């Protein structure tokens, strides 16, 4: 068979008409066509399922089907074959309807000339090809439109929704029935209290040919807030007239969140840097005071040594010693803080006779306090050794008692109560000093924070932040009650854990303290591991 020949399915029940058509085709050149002639629609449909035809010449009045029904059945079964309808002279109306229903062309029997026939056949095939290509192209574009993750809304120049892809329906939380309505009627706009007037003006500008882009916040019914990158782009025809507006919007909430986190991290870093420089200036300031005391005292001793009486001399030596002690203390505190900040503080419990420990500590602090202060220590409850970390506990109590002394510049009584009851040890340190303003109370445990009423009382603001860490290492808690001008009470609660209960049993069964200490070391080693 000639490759260039066109295969034609002729469906015609009238033998005369069929013969006439075939003769006309042969007249045009036998080699140009390959014609299969059938008389019934069902036979034609079967043939189409088995063979490929380039064109069908279809008579609508067949023994098994009549009129437009014939066309409907045919195009349902063989939708891709270009179809030319054959009609009787008085059937032109039907033929026109058929053309409106995707038929490529029609021929009126009795008026078919060879040239007309060839022309109609070739054009029908060509038109069908163009239509197929157009459909494929449309199909591809529709696929992209529907499946892109970018949300796209097509608007008329007046802002009415023409089409919305699936991503846009999801983003704007709406359904297909919004087509034909204005964009500003969508619920997301109304919930977000975004001004519809603003959107209308944006659309008007875009209809005038401007491209506009904004970041918006949308709010959903359940108060979920989304950040949207929203743009309106005018689509122009070849004459430059705006025919459609393309609204694109993408959800940038994640980026916004990441941005906010970055800003937060940057702020934290800035605060940290500020804290570091505060720390440096604080520490240098705290060192400068005792150092200038030492310098002045040394200069006086050097220049006027012979003129000074013994009591005067020992007064200056005393000042030097106090200043050195202060610097030593500050250095210890800074080093201790450095270790706690690096997470290097260890909880290493040993058995302690709490009453003895606290009483010694009270005496030491009483000695270093001025004569204006009196520390009254009281112990209540079971007098049995308990497992605590000696260093951490010393740090906690020394700091709280020193603060009580330091922040009671008028002097007075400081009550130090220790209560060992049930499974809890409670330490309470109460002073009648300057007190702490409410606004500062929650911040005192943060590094370097000092209350606004400290005046000229020296300090770095490190003590309580370390105290808190030491308490936490004991899995305890610290609280405070304070009133400006009345006084302050700090309460630390540590729970007596399982090991200390075991040690109590051992004590009661008569073991000596040495073996208990040995046992507690083993226990603490196990705990730290
Ligand atoms: P240092 O690091 O030398 O202890 P500091 O005493 O200033 O310096 P913290 O012990 O951490 O630092 O105390 C923080 C702040 O809490 C103090 O600056 C002070 O304002 C306040 N404060 C602590 N204890 C008392 C108290 N008993 N009475 C009044 N204010 C107190
Ligand atoms: Mg302090």
TrEMBL record:
Every copy of the Histidine kinase domain together lies at 282-498
PROSITE patterns under this entry? HIS_KIN (PS50109), PAC (PS50113), RESPONSE_REGULATORY (PS50110)
**Which keywords belong to this entry?**
Kinase, Phosphoprotein, Transferase, Two-component regulatory system
- Which reactions does this protein catalyse? ATP + protein L-histidine = ADP + protein N-phospho-L-histidine
Do the record's keywords include Plastid? no
Response regulatory domain: from which residue to which, for each copy?
A: 7-124
4-aspartylphosphate PTM positions: 59
The EC number(s) given in the record are: 2.7.13.3
SUPFAM superfamilies linked to this entry: ATPase domain of HSP90 chaperone/DNA topoisomerase II/histidine kinase (SSF55874), CheY-like (SSF52172), Homodimeric domain of signal transducing histidine kinase (SSF47384), PYP-like sensor domain (PAS domain) (SSF55785)
Where is each PAC domain found?
212-264
Task: Please describe what this protein does.
Answer: Photoreceptor which exists in two forms that are reversibly interconvertible by light: the R form that absorbs maximally in the red region of the spectrum and the FR form that absorbs maximally in the far-red region.
The protein depicted here goes by the name histidine kinase
Supply the source organism for this entry: Brasilonema sennae CENA114
């Amino acid at each position: 068979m000639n490759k260039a020949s066109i295969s034609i399915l002729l469906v015609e029940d009238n033998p005369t008409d069929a013969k006439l058509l075939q003769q006309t085709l042969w007249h045009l050149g036998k080699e140009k066509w390959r014609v299969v002639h059938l008389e019934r629609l069902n036979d034609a449909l079967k043939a189409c399922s088995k063979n490929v035809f380039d064109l069908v010449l279809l008579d609508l009045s067949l023994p098994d089907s009549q009129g437009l029904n014939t066309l409907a059945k045919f195009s349902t079964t063989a939708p891709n074959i270009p179809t030319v309808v054959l009609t009787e002279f008085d059937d032109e109306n039907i033929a026109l309807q058929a053309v409106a229903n995707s038929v490529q062309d029609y021929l009126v029997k009795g008026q078919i000339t060879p040239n007309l026939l060839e022309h109609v056949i070739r054009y029908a095939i060509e038109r069908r090809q163009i239509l197929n290509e157009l459909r494929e192209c449309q199909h591809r574009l529709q696929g992209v439109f529907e499946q892109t993750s970018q949300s796209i809304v097509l608007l008329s120049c007046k802002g009415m929704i023409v089409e919305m892809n699936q991503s846009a329906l999801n983003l704007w939380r709406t359904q297909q029935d919004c087509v034909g309505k204005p964009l500003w009627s969508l619920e997301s706009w109304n919930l977000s209290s975004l001004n519809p007037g603003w959107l209308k003006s944006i659309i008007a500008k875009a209809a005038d040919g401007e491209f506009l882009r904004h970041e918006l916040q949308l709010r959903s019914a359940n108060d979920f807030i989304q950040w949207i990158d929203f743009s309106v782009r005018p689509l122009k025809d070849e004459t430059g007239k705006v025919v459609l507006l393309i609204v694109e919007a993408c959800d940038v909430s994640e980026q916004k969140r990441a941005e906010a986190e970055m800003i937060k991290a940057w702020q934290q870093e800035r605060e940290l840097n500020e804290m570091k420089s505060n720390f440096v200036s604080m520490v240098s300031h705290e060192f400068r005071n005792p150092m200038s005391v030492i310098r002045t005292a040394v200069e006086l001793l050097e220049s006027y040594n012979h003129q000074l009486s013994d009591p005067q001399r020992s007064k200056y030596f005393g000042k030097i010693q106090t200043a050195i002690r202060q610097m030593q203390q500050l250095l210890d505190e800074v080093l201790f803080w450095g270790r706690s900040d690096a997470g290097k503080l260890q909880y290493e419990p040993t058995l302690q006779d709490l009453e003895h420990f606290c009483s010694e500590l009270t005496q030491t602090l009483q000695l270093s306090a001025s004569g204006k202060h009196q520390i009254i220590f009281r112990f209540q409850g079971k007098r049995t050794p308990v497992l605590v970390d000696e260093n951490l506990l010393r740090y906690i109590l020394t700091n709280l008692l020193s603060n009580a002394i330091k922040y009671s510049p008028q002097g007075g009584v400081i009550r130090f109560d220790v209560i060992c009851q049930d499974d809890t040890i409670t330490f309470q340190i109460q002073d009648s000093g300057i007190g702490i303003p409410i606004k500062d109370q929650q911040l005192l445990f943060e590094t370097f924070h000092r209350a606004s009423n400290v005046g000229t009382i020296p300090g770095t603001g490190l003590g309580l932040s370390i105290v808190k860490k030491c308490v936490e290492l004991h899995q305890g808690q610290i609280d405070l009650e304070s009133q400006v001008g009345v006084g302050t009470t700090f309460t630390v609660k540590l729970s007596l854990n399982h090991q200390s209960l075991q040690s109590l049993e051992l004590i009661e069964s008569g073991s000596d303290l040495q073996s208990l200490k040995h046992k507690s070391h083993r226990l603490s080693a196990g705990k730290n591991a």
